[in-house]
């Protein structure tokens, strides 16, 4: 009774916690609510009458804390892979508990119970390996390129079907204990194969989707344990992940199935490479600085390249130098810029750029025609005008930032190599575009030196 | 073991919580999508309560071992998730001085 009441309070605190995340001014209350709810729930659980072994629990909690603290202190640029890793940990917990419950209860498992238990373990299993793969790709331990082979979808489909057949068999014959490990194994394999064909540009969608799976498997665990708090937390996490993946796939003009079952722009990439080189105009830092200081409105468009080059602090210096000269500087944030939802916002906030200068795509797109300079730093596909005009482009229909409508466009880029998806960007060949070749951090640094006249 | 009425209860809770989640999260500013994800991740680690019971009841060795690993994994998510979410949110500052004190 006491436990149930504590769980009820915890549920309310969890919902408030997410509600307060709606604005940066209240968001930190959200953390406190979440922490308080968590503490109440854990303390309540320790009151559970069946618990006899507190020592082992204490050791596990301490060990988890020891692992958790460094994971909470990673660099901001490592946040995407940390997030993927934590999806894996969450799913690991759910899958292990589900497996333990199966062996404790088999063969006396009702059909309904076995169904949710199967959902819990299959979703959990594929999320473990899928998230580990995603984390590996983001940490660049694994190749970021999508790996595809003939019949890939067919193999994946067969595996999933295999896991479902075992699940159905177990629902009818819950005493068939020896089949259970195979179901888990297939789910784990499926998770690996699911992420193999996925490229870096699709990571925001995939991370959100894995987030949703982790939540749904936790909710399924709530059904198995008849734990209402777990059902609520799982449903909240699941809907959060699903909403984010919907937002992300809309921002790429792609459907879920397309993200999961079609590697991006493979054939088109080859076609683009055969075109002859077109002339581009380039500029050196001195020229870029002169153009920027003569401007009155500047919009900076950051992308994954800024994160890779760790250029956010130099960008902050640029923001300061230009603001001091009375230039209005704002940042245009595309929903899928970077490797996870909101990635750019966190990096720019880390560099102390005020969040009211970070503007969403829909809000800022109308302002590009009145903008003197659009400065693109490490972003590519999200600025590609072919998405608006070229029906044959693989990204046709994807909402983009209309940087080409600014009076002058400056693009900081290492070389003319096409971006991740291998799609040529006509933006670079426009008359009002200047290419700034170089490392994002070094180039922005040189511009800042020109603007401030110093040597720092 | 679930009787059918408690199953229906559980389904009610799941569906309603899903709706609340949808409505609440729809209102989260895209600015905060990254901290949102790390926060929901930490909250999701409430699965630790199921694992704690498994370890504590110690019904057999297998379930205790699986439960032990599960508690470690979930706890690291709770601790790491709240820590990094807090670090991220601390960084978000407004340029308007009035809001600064709140964000700091």
Describe what is shown at a glance.
The complex is a heterodimer of chains A (456) and B (104). Chain A is an alpha/beta fold and 456 residues long. Chain A has 18 helices and 6 strands.
Secondary structure elements and pairings:
The complex is a heterodimer of chains A (456) and B (104).
Chain A: H1 2-19, H2 27-46, H3 54-72, H4 79-105, H5 111-138, H6 152-172, H7 180-195, H8 203-225, H9 228-251, H10 256-261, H11 266-273, H12 285-294, E1 297-302, H13 304-308, H14 312-324, E2 328-333, H15 343-350, E3 358-360, H16 361-364, E4 373-377, H17 386-389, E5 408-413, E6 433-437, H18 440-452
Parallel strand pairs in A: 1-2, 1-4, 2-3, 4-5, 5-6
Helix pairs in contact in A: 1-2, 1-9, 4-5, 4-8, 5-6, 5-7, 5-8, 6-7, 8-9, 12-18, 14-18
Chain B: H1 4-26, H2 33-44, H3 48-57, H4 61-91, H5 97-103
How would you portray this structure in words?
The complex is a heterodimer of chains A (456) and B (104). With 456 residues, chain A is of the alpha/beta class. Chain A has three domains: 1-73, no CATH class; 80-261, no CATH class; 281-452, Rossmann fold (3-Layer(aba) Sandwich). Chain A has 18 helices and six strands. Chain A has helices at residues 2-19, 27-46, 54-72, 79-105, 111-138, 152-172, 180-195, 203-225, 228-251, 256-261, 266-273, 285-294, 304-308, 312-324, 343-350, 361-364, 386-389, 440-452, and strands at residues 297-302, 328-333, 358-360, 373-377, 408-413, 433-437. A six-stranded parallel β-sheet of chain A has the order 3-2-1-4-5-6. Chain A starts with a helix and ends with a helix. By secondary structure, chain B is mainly alpha-helical. Chain B has one domain. Chain B contains five helices and no strands. In chain B, helix 2 runs antiparallel to helix 4 and helix 3 (48-57) runs antiparallel to helix 4 (61-91). Chain B starts with a helix and ends with a helix. Mean pLDDT of chain B is 87; it is low at 98-104.
């Amino acid at each position: 009774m006491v436990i149930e009441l504590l769980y009820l309070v915890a549920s309310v605190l969890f919902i408030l916690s997410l509600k307060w995340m709606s604005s940066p001014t209240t968001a930190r209350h959200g953390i406190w609510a979440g922490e308080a709810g968590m503490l109440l729930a854990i303390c309540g659980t320790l009151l559970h009458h069946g618990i006899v072994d507190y020592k082992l629990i204490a050791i596990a909690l301490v060990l988890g804390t020891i692992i958790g603290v460094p994971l909470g202190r990673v660099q901001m640029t490592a946040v995407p892979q940390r997030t993927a890793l934590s999806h894996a940990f969450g799913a690991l917990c759910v899958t292990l508990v589900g497996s333990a419950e199966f062996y404790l209860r088999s063969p006396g498992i009702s059909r309904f119970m076995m169904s949710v238990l199967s959902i819990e373990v299959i979703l959990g299993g594929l999320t473990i390996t899928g998230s580990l793969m995603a984390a590996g790709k983001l940490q660049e331990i694994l190749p970021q390129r999508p790996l595809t082979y003939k019949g890939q979808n067919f193999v994946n489909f067969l595996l999933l079907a295999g896991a479902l057949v075992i699940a159905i068999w177990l629902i009818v014959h819950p005493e068939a204990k020896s089949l259970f490990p195979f179901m888990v194994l297939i789910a784990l394999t499926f998770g690996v194969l699911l992420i193999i064909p996925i490229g870096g540009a699709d990571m925001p969608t995939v991370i959100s989707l894995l987030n949703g799976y982790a939540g749904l498997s936790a909710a399924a665990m709530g059904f198995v344990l008849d734990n209402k708090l777990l059902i609520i937390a799982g449903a909240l996490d699941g809907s959060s992940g699903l909403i984010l993946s919907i937002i992300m796939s809309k921002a790429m003009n792609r459907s879920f199935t397309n993200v999961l079952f079609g590697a991006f722009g493979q054939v088109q990439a080859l076609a683009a490479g055969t075109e002859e080189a077109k002339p581009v105009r380039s500029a050196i830092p001195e020229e870029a600085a002169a153009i920027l200081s003569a401007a009155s409105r500047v919009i900076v468009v950051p992308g994954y390249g800024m994160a890779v080059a760790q250029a956010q602090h130099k960008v902050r210096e640029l923001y300061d130098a230009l603001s001091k000269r009375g230039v209005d500087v704002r940042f245009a944030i595309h929903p899928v810029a970077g490797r996870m939802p909101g990635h750019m916002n966190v990096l720019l906030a880390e560099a102390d750029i005020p969040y009211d200068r970070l503007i969403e795509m829909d809000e800022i797109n109308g302002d590009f025609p009145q903008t003197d300079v659009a400065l693109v730093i490490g972003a590519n596909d999200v600025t590609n005008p072919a998405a608006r005009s070229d029906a044959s482009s693989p990204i046709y229909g994807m909402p983009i930032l209309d940087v080409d409508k600014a009076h002058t466009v400056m693009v900081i880029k290492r070389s003319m190599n096409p971006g991740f998806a291998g799609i040529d960007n006509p933006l670079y060949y426009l008359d009002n575009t200047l290419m700034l070749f170089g490392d994002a951090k070094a180039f922005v640094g040189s511009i800042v030196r020109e603007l401030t006249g110093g040597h720092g | 073991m679930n009787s059918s009425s408690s199953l229906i209860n559980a389904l009610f809770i799941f569906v309603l919580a899903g709706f609340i989640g949808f409505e609440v999260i729809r209102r989260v500013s895209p600015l905060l999508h990254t901290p949102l994800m790390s926060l929901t991740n930490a909250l999701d680690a409430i699965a630790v309560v199921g694992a704690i019971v498994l370890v504590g009841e110690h019904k057999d060795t297998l379930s205790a071992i699986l439960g032990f690993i599960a508690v470690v994994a979930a706890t690291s998510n709770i601790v790491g998730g709240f820590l990094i979410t807090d670090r991220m949110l601390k960084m978000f500052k407004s340029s308007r001085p009035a809001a600064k004190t709140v964000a700091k």
